[in-house]
Amino acid sequence: KENDIKELEHNLIVHRPWGKYEVLIDEPNHKVKKITVYPDAKLSLQAHYHRAEHWIVIRGMAKIVNGESVINLRENESTYIPSYTTHRLENPGKINLELIEVQTGHYLEEDDIIRYDDQYNRV
């Protein structure tokens, strides 16, 4: 592929109780996902040791816990979550929330997660 960018031949779609995510790009120091969160669903309150995350809302509305702050984002708005920061993503709306997540760091695997609270009992 052009510019040595590795694209997945078949994007990986992973289903979760709160929605799903699709891995669009998976490189050594960055990963890009499209995340869909169902109405009234939320992800666990969590943190990561090895990665930071950038979230860009592309559809719907997001309620985000980012450290000590709680913010609401609409389409075309974004936030940055540094590593070690406690955070949660929630969809308070009536339609699916869709966002692009860009992860940056030296270790981007799914086991880099500390869950503090989870409505699906995954703590």
Outline the fold blueprint.
Layout: E1 7-16, E2 19-26, E3 30-37, E4 45-47, E5 51-59, E6 62-66, E7 69-73, E8 78-81, E9 87-90, E10 97-105, E11 114-117
Antiparallel strand pairs: 1-2, 2-3, 3-10, 4-11, 5-8, 5-10, 6-7, 6-9
Could you characterize the architecture of this molecule?
With 123 residues, the chain is mainly β. The protein has one domain: Jelly Rolls. It is 0% helix and 56% strand. It contains no helices and eleven strands. It has a six-stranded antiparallel β-sheet, with no helix packed on it. A three-stranded antiparallel β-sheet has the order 7-6-9, with no helix packed on it. Strands 4-11 form a two-stranded antiparallel ribbon.
Top keywords for this entry?
mainly beta; Jelly Rolls; 0% helix
In short:
It is built from no helices and eleven strands. The chain is mainly beta and 123 residues long.
Low-pLDDT runs of 5+ residues are none
For the termini, the CA-CA separation is 40 Å
**Major sheet: arrangement of strands:** 1-2-3-10-5-8
* Radius of gyration, taken over Cα atoms and rounded to an integer in Å: 14 Å
Structural class: mainly beta
CATH-defined topology: Jelly Rolls
